[in-house]
Write a structure and sequence with these properties.
By secondary structure, the chain is mainly β. The protein has a single domain (110-426), classed as Single-stranded right-handed beta-helix, Pectin lyase-like (Pectate Lyase C-like, 3 Solenoid), CATH 2.160.20. Helices cover 2% and strands 43% of the residues. The chain is built from 1 helix and 46 strands. It has a 21-stranded parallel beta sheet that branches. A 15-stranded parallel beta sheet has the order 5-8-10-12-15-17-20-23-26-29-32-35-38-41-44. A 10-stranded parallel beta sheet has the order 19-22-25-28-31-34-37-40-43-46, with no helix packed on it. The chain is elongated and about 85 Å long. The N and C termini lie far apart (105 Å).
Length: 427
């Protein structure tokens, strides 16, 4: 057969343009724009391709889906805006068993108003090795809504995004090895900035979680293990923690956690490391290790001016190592121990019980056995510098501590049973 211009088969194009002004390969008119957007995606070859969306508002009434690998959806910034007019649909859904997706340089807005049950702006369902970069997401405020959701998705990157004003800003469920970095997750209307459930080996780095209201925490982990939380700012969560951590083997380091409506960090779980964080002016304690946790490490944190304790270890959480921390001007004890077999060493505890109630101390033990308290510096804490507070504190070692100052009831109080005191400096 001789091929002519009239008989040549149509070639599938790997890059298409969508526009609101009539200049694209696919053109929308402001009504049911998902039809043209979906047609553009579906026109791509089986191996993937690029959909470029020009500036403009795209109003949709049904979910846009991506069901092939290696698709890029690229806007021209915040002025490329996808919005919906109905509840209970996801704006963009990717999956299942898809990889190589890029979503970048565009804005997604939900309908708001708490009218429906659930919708998300971007929903990854079993999606791997993909990236969401430089997107704006807002106003997904239904009862179970989230700005972005990773569900059973591995090795993805979310970076340089502004995901603000959603019910939950980011939800991660049963998803591992993802990187969440350099993004804003602010002003969640009833949940957390970042919520992670049953997920492992994720990196949460360099993000901002500010002013999330009536939520559980700025960052909330549920049954999630071996994750890293580093260099984030967790600020002003109303009625919630800066970080709530339920899991095993997580590392939390070098975060700024201030002015939250509950504890700065709450830990429930074992083998977690809380290292080098700045935790200030939270409504309750800077760090709370809850019951049923063991072998946690709390070290080199700055716990300053919190409305309850600097560091509190509850009964049932044993074998905690507390070392190198600075507790300063907290309203209650600098360090309160209510459990057994802990090591409290090389901490600096200054001017706690800042309201001068003569109730709280630099380090205090309540019904706590076999603890080692060594090489700490305690100064000007209002009740005692170190207080072994009752007879149900058994077999504790208090050695090599410096307990000084004039604005206190006393230096070391031993009301315990079989306490071993040695080589302490008290003036």
């Amino acid at each position: 057969m001789v091929m002519t211009l009239l008989t040549r088969p149509k070639k599938t194009v790997g890059t298409v343009v969508i526009a609101t002004d009539g200049s694209g390969d696919f053109n929308t008119n402001g009504t049911d724009d998902q039809v043209e957007i979906q047609a553009a995606i579906d026109s791509l070859p089986a191996g993937g391709g690029c959909v470029y969306m020009k500036e403009g508002t795209y109003t949709i009434t049904a979910t846009i889906t991506i069901t092939i690998d290696n698709v890029a959806i690229i806007g021209c910034g915040r002025c490329t805006h996808i919005t919906i007019t109905t509840d209970d649909i996801n704006l963009l859904e990717v999956g299942t068993n898809i990889e190589g997706i890029l979503i970048t340089n565009m804005r997604f807005s939900g309908v708001g108003g708490f009218g429906g049950v659930t919708h998300s702006a971007i929903y990854f369902d079993t999606v791997d090795n993909s990236e969401i970069r430089g997107v704006w997401v807002d106003n997904c405020t239904d009862v179970s809504a989230a700005g972005i959701v990773l569900d059973n998705s591995y090795r993805n990157i979310i970076t340089s995004c502004k995901v603000n004003g959603n019910r939950f800003n980011l939800g991660i469920g049963t998803s591992n090895y993802n990187i969440i970095s350099n993004s804003q997750f602010n002003s969640a209307t009833g949940g957390s900035g970042i919520r992670m459930v049953v997920s492992q080996y994720n990196l949460i780095e360099g993000n901002e979680c500010l002013s999330n209201t009536t939520g559980l925490a700025a960052i909330y982990f549920e049954n999630s293990d071996n994750n890293i939380v580093i260099d984030n700012i967790l600020f002003a969560t109303s009625e919630g923690n800066g970080l709530y951590l339920e899991g095993i083997g997580n590392l939390v380091t070098n975060n700024i956690i201030t002015e939250n409506g509950d504890d700065g960090i709450t830990i429930t779980g074992s083998w977690n490391s809380i290292i080098g964080n700045y935790i200030r002016t939270n409504t309750r304690s800077a760090i709370l290790v809850w019951t049923n946790g063991e072998y946690n490490t709390v070290s080199n944190n700055d716990c300053h001016a919190n409305e309850e304790y600097g560091i509190r270890i509850r009964s049932g959480s044993h074998h905690t190592t507390i070392t190198g921390n600075h507790t300063f001007q907290n309203e209650y004890d600098g360090i309160l121990i209510e459990s057994d077999d802990n090591i409290i060493s090389n901490n600096i505890n200054d001017t706690n019980d800042v309201d001068n109630t003569t109730t709280y101390s630099g380090i205090r033990l309540i019904s706590a056995d076999r603890n080692i308290i060594s090489n700490n510096r305690c100064k000007e804490n209002d009740n005692y510098e170190i207080d072994i507070s009752n007879a149900t504190c058994n077999d504790n070692l208090v050695e090599g501590n410096i307990c000084i100052g004039t604005n206190h009831v006393g230096t070391i109080n031993d009301s315990g049973t079989n306490t071993h005191l040695a080589h302490n400096i008290t003036t």
